[in-house]
Structures are given as C-alpha cells and as structure tokens.
Specification:
The chain has about 290 residues and is mostly helical. The protein has one domain. About 70% of the residues lie in helices and about 5% in strands. It contains eight helices and six strands; from the N terminus they run H-H-H-E-E-E-H-H-E-H-H-E-E-H. The protein has a two-stranded antiparallel sheet with strand order 1-4. Helix 1 packs antiparallel against helix 2. The longest helix has about 30 residues. The two termini are about 20 Å apart.
C-alpha cells in the first residue's frame, strides 16, 4: 500500500472524508428528531454517505482497483444471498422488504447493497487494526483471522440495528418473527456467514495481488474508527427519538415495547460495538507509541 502523504490528492481526500463524516452524522440526527425531510431521503443520505466513505477512504488506504473489487464483491455476494433468502429462507430466514429503502434489484433494495459496501469496509479496517500488522502475524493466518474478526464487527452493527429497522420502522418484515425483538437468530448466523464470505474473497484477492496489509500509520485508521463510533453513537441517540407508537407487533402478533427495542440497540452499541471500537483505538495508540525506523 502507498502512504497517503505520497499522493498529491491526499489533502483533498482528507477534506472529502471530513465532509462525508459530517453528512453521515447529519443523517443519523435526522433519523432521531422530527423533521420535514422524507424518510427515504434520510435513509439514502445515511447509506450513500457510508458508501462514499468506503470509496474515498479505500482509495486512500488501498488503491482504486482494490476498493472497487471490494465493492463488487460486497454487491454481488450480498445481493445474491439476500435474494436467495427471500426466495428460500436461507441463510437469513424468511422476510421481505417494504418501500422504506426505495427501489429494488430483483427483491432487494439497491440501497441495501450500498450499505453492505459502506459498513463492510469500515468493519474490515477495524478488523485489520485489531488483528495487528502483517509483521506480527503470518500472512496465511491473517487470511482467516482478519475475516473472522471483521465479520464479528459487522454482525455487531446488524445486531444493534435490525430490530429497529424491521420491527419498529418496518423497512423489512420477518414473516415468522423471532426472539430478538421480532428478528430470528438465523438472521445473525446468516449475516456472519455472508460477511465472512465477502472478507475471505477479498483477502484472497489481496493475497494474490501481494497487497495484504493494513494501515501502518495510526492516522490512516482513525477515520474508519470514527465512522464506526458515529454509527454506535447514532444508535444510542435513538432512545431520545419520539415516535407515535409505544408498542409494535411482529407478524406473529407478538407485542414489543419500542422503548425496549431502542434500549437494547443502545446497549449493544455501547457494550459490543463499543468494545470493538475500544480494541481498535488501543491498537492505534500502541502503533502511535511504537518507534519507527
């Protein structure tokens, strides 16, 4: 990988990343407070800012071809397995999408595919940071350890958000409900398998192209860490949102208190997403304190 400082456009990319982070933070705030902005517009701003972050930071961290390959893997694998699950129930469970997330490609919203790219990239970078540099672990070991770690990081994000988007906001409907506030356990097993597959394919691509590395400088991982923290903070702030319904029901008729769903999302965001963020931050601090030759 090339150092960002070696690129004439490095400063421009940093400015762009700052603007993207601001846009993402604005989207999360719009989700919480009453406003005249249509819900689909808010969802698009949320998802597209995450996608833009992945492309801009991926260009800085890797190079253009690698981040485009990563995006292609996310879009193909994600859309294939989401459509498969809608038709057969494997690997996530039986569900279908409503109109909240906009137009679809076959049975799956286009915005969902873009969401895969954005959060999968952020989770990949944090996974790389937590596992450590290529000097501290064998390349062969990292082909497994980084995907395993990154898949947990991204599944934690879905664990926090899925009940909110499905049971409360009705972005999609789980036909048979589930124990996690209307979401089945199979969803999270399917999520883990799906994103692990994405990461393994990308790791193999990097291995073949002799590019399997992570940011050597702490500065280069801070943006992804900040994005993940902003996402967790946005989930926590949802407890301050004021909707009309106090209780919602899943398709089985099981009632769920909205305050309980939002509270559980906040707890997962603090103690699970927050734990991953803390580990990545400690790694960044350790790298910053390590003398370089």
């Amino acid at each position: 990988m090339h150092d960002a400082s070696e690129r004439p456009s490095g400063q421009i990319v940093r400015v762009v990343l700052c603007l993207i982070l601001i846009a993402y933070a604005a989207a999360r705030l719009l989700e919480i407070f009453p406003n005249p902005v249509p819900r689909l517009t808010v969802v698009a701003l949320d998802v597209l800012s995450a996608l833009a972050f992945a492309l801009a930071d991926g260009y800085r961290q890797l190079h253009l071809r690698s981040i485009l390959v990563f995006a292609a893997i996310c879009l193909v694998v994600g859309n294939l397995l989401e459509n498969l699950s809608i038709l057969t129930g494997f690997p996530f469970g039986h569900y279908y999408f409503l109109s909240l997330m906009g137009p679809k490609l076959l049975h799956v919203p286009v915005l969902l595919g873009f969401a895969y790219v954005g959060m999968a990239y952020v989770s990949w970078i944090l996974g790389c940071l937590i596992v450590g540099s290529s000097q501290s672990a064998s390349t062969r070991g990292r082909l497994v350890s980084v995907p395993l770690t990154a898949a947990f990081i991204m599944t934690a994000w879905d664990l926090a958000q899925d009940p909110v988007w499905a049971t409360v906001l009705r972005g999609w409907i789980w036909r048979d409900g589930g124990p996690w506030f209307g979401v089945p356990i199979s969803n999270y097993l399917g999520w883990y398998v799906t994103v692990f597959t994405i990461y393994v394919l990308f790791a193999l691509y990097l291995r073949v192209n002799s590019a399997f590395d992570i940011p050597a400088s702490p500065v280069r991982g801070r943006s992804a860490l900040l994005f993940y923290v902003l996402c967790a903070a946005g989930n926590v702030c949802q407890i301050f949102s004021r909707g009309n319904a106090l209780v919602v029901k899943d398709p089985t008729g099981q009632p769920w208190r909205v305050s309980d769903i939002l509270g559980a999302s906040a707890l997962v965001s603090v103690f699970v997403m927050g734990a991953f963020a803390l580990l990545a931050w400690l790694k960044l601090r350790g790298e910053a304190a390590t003398p370089t030759d």
